[in-house]
Structures are given as C-alpha cells and as structure tokens.
Amino acid sequence: MRYISTRGEAPALGFEDVLLTGLAPDGGLYVPESLPHFSLEEIRGWRGLSYSELAFNVMYPFVEGAIPEHDFRKMLDETYGVFAHKAVAPLVQLDTNEWVMELFRGPTLAFKDFALQLLGRLLDYVLAARDQHVVIMGATSGDTGSAAIEGCRRCEHVDIFILHPYERVSEVQRRQMTTVQGDNIHNIAVRGNFDDCQRMVKESFGNQSFLGGKTQLAAVNSINWARIMAQIVYYFQASLALGGPDRSMAFSVPTGNFGDIFAGYLARKMGLPVSQLVIATNRNDILHRFMSGNKYEQHKLEHTLSPSMDIMVSSNFERLLFDLHGRDGAAVRELLENAAKGPVSIADYRWKHARKLFDSDAVDDRTTCDTIREVYEQNEYLLDPHTAIGVRAARNCRRDPAVPMITLGTAHPAKFPDAIAAAGLSIKPQLPAHMADLFEREERYTVLDNDVTAVQEFIAGHWKNA
Ligand SMILES: *Cc1c(COP(=O)(O)O)cnc(C)c1O
C-alpha cells in the first residue's frame, strides 16, 4: 500500500515511512492511495471472530508489504489482550436500537488506547528492523499523554518525553502519566500553560539540533495515519455484533480532531453498511458550523466539561476535504492556506455532498450535564461528558428508529468526576479494579521552567544513549 499527501506535492511513501513521518513535507496529511473494499459476503464471514482476528482482517491491507502476517497478528494479540474486557469494545444497550460502544476498557480508560497501544508496537517493530531510535516528544493537556506513554512503555527503540502544564492537569490524569515506570518514560511538568508546552514541541520539531544528530524526533499526534487505521476496526466489530452487515448501522461520534469519525467514514467506504454518521461536538463547534452553514471559521477556544474535544481547528478534517475535492491536492492546499487567514467556504455541490455523508450537532455543557443525569435516571448508567455529547447528538439527529444507533463511548466516567458532580449526581464514579491503587502508586516527573532551552537540554541529557 502506498500513501499520498492531501496537498499533492510530497512523494508517495510506504507504510513504514508514513508511520515515522507524521506531517508530509508539503504540510499535508498522508492517506492511502486506494482503499481496500470488502464484499458483504467477506464481512459476513467475519462473524464470531475475536477482536484481534477481526482487526487483522480489516487492517492487514494497509500494512501489507511492510509487516509480515505472523508478526502483525502477534502485535494485535498483545495490543488488545491487555484490555480489561474480553470483548475489547463491549456494547451496552440504552434503549431499543440505542447503544453505547465502550471504548474505554484499555489501560488508560480512553479510546485512544486502541490506536496508541498498537502504534507503540508498530514503531518499535519498524525501528528494530532499521536499527534506529526515536525520541517521541509531545504536549498534553490530559488524555493523549497517558495513552501515548502506556503505548511506548515496552518500546526498546523509543524514548518518550511528555510535557504537561505544571499543576494544570487533573490528579487522575497526572498520575496516569507519572506512575508508569520505565527508563524510557520521561514526564516533564512545565511551569506554564498547555500552549507553552505545545509551542516548545513545535519549536523542537522545527530545529532538532539539540539532539546532536544522534536520534530524531517522532510524533504520535492524532494525524498519524496508523492511529486512524486502528480506529476503523471497531465500527466493523459493533456492526457484526448487532446483525451487520445484513442491516445498516448509525454511529454518533464525540469529535475533536475528526480522527475517530473519519475512521467511521472509511469503514463505510470499505464496504460496511452505515446509514448515518453523526459528528457530535461541544461548544468548540467549527465542524458543526461548517456542516450547517458551509463556513469554515476558527473561533476562540472555549474550555468545556469535555476537555478532550476542546479544539479550534480539526486537523484530520483535511483528509475529508481531500476526498470532497476529488483528491485534488492543489485545491486543498489553496483552501487551507486561505482558511488560516479567515473564513472559507467550499463549492456548494461539494458541501451538499458532505451533508449527505454526515449529520452534526453541537452540545453545550448544560445539555451535557442534563444528558448525564437523564441517562443515569433512565438506566443507572453513568456517561462521561464526551460520551454524553455523543448520546445527545444521536438522539437529536437520528433519522430512522429502526436502525441501531451506536454512540462511541470515548472515556470512562471516573476520569471526569467534576462533570458528574456538575450533573447534580452525588455518586462518585469508581476507577476500575486494575486502576484502584492509582493514588498509592509512586510518581516520577521533573518540573522545569517555562523555557525551551531547559526542556531541550533535559531531553538531550536523558534519552537512552545520551
Ligand atoms: C480524543 C478524544 C475525543 C476526540 O477524538 P477525535 O479523534 O480527536 O475526534 C473524544 N473523546 C475523548 C474522551 C477523547 O480522548
């Protein structure tokens, strides 16, 4: 499989290079040159497979040529074997034809584990084969950092440095990062805010001379193709569990960077019958505004009860724009260069096409809380605030009550006790058993000043062969 850039000017790459590269040199994102397509008969034949067997069938066409079948199967068994539920992505029923797919049974209780647990293993495999080493550098305001750290824990060819704003992430989130033991894991608390952390990462990628040419930086952010690829699988899994592919499904997806829902769009293009895809956003609603009015315009960032969806622009949306423009990289480049300067629109017929592909809704904090409370009262089932947005959008946008509507449950409620309290519920969501001692575990992190040189010196002095 070859991968091409959404901006049309970077050379096509194979899977291994795409895995290590992140952003394409022309500023675009990599997408597969063509998608595999599965017939209904093939998909039907996957009924009853384990999650990791299904994952193999869905993903192998994307890695074929780079990773031998046997090694890929082993990687998938290890990745999904550590999830705390045998079904890996179990479904919970809320009502007739209304479901939540629990994607938070992985090691850090967020759906990002599905991709990052695999990504760490893929990276280590490719780096070992090439006898290379990388330093992963990232900034986190909470969730992604812990999933990335967990994912890299066993990597021999990767050191990971995650920057978080000192005293500005929740205690659960901090502990999930700082209690993971490993010589290759480095947590840095920066005396600054999340934007300061992000700026330092960006600056370091721009000039890597502080590493002395002995290793190189790699990114595991949500634009990495391998992350999208891993998220396609659970759409197939949910469908097969509920009578697919012989009936169509609807999905509602709590969305920030458009990675998770883009994976659903790909699942449909690969042959899975999906009759509706709902983009569910919080008040950071650039996607909902685009879908309702064909205007793509950045607003100021709002802090909400669903922080993992607090974004100003949705980076993976570029991958959809590429398809909407008939895969014309030059058109995408022009559009996004203009979008950096002010509001943009796309041709009306293209926008109408986008509206056929997706429905959308934006949900504010108050309605998020109402939904958490409502579902608890109806089902004694506790939603985290991100999943609650998905459920609310699903109920608002639903077209056909005979079609199963599946909301992607993106995080465990115990990670967001403040939202549960704001919903007026006096219950305290409990961490699952395998995390119950989180508050007793030993923490390791280094506090550094808000100074990029200090951070770079720390990295240069602390990676494996420094
Ligand atoms: C990352 C995240 C999202 C948003 O996912 P995208 O792929 O960025 O759209 C939603 N909910 C939770 C809990 C997350 O961690």
UniProtKB/TrEMBL annotation:
Reaction catalysis annotation? O-phospho-L-homoserine + H2O = L-threonine + phosphate
**What's one GO MF term for it?**
threonine synthase activity
- Which SUPFAM superfamilies does the UniProt entry name for this protein? Tryptophan synthase beta subunit-like PLP-dependent enzymes
The enzyme's main class, written as a single word, is: lyase
Amino-acid biosynthesis among keywords:
yes
Which segments of the protein form a coiled coil according to its record? Answer: none
EC annotation? 4.2.3.1
Task: Provide the Tryptophan synthase beta chain-like PALP domain boundaries.
Answer: 94-333
- Name the UniProt key words of this record, in alphabetical order: Amino-acid biosynthesis, Lyase, Pyridoxal phosphate, Threonine biosynthesis
CDD domains named among the record's database cross-references: Thr-synth_2 (cd01560)
PTM-bearing positions, type N6-(pyridoxal phosphate)lysine: 112
Domain (Threonine synthase N-terminal): residue spans on this chain: 2-80
Hey, which pathway is this one from? Amino-acid biosynthesis; L-threonine biosynthesis; L-threonine from L-aspartate: step 5/5
> Which cofactors does this protein require?
pyridoxal 5'-phosphate
Please cite one Gene Ontology biological process associated with this protein: threonine biosynthetic process
Report the sequence similarity comment from the record.
Answer: Belongs to the threonine synthase family.
Entry protein name: Threonine synthase
Q: Record the organism.
A: Marinobacter profundi
**Origin organism lineage:** Bacteria, Pseudomonadati, Pseudomonadota, Gammaproteobacteria, Pseudomonadales
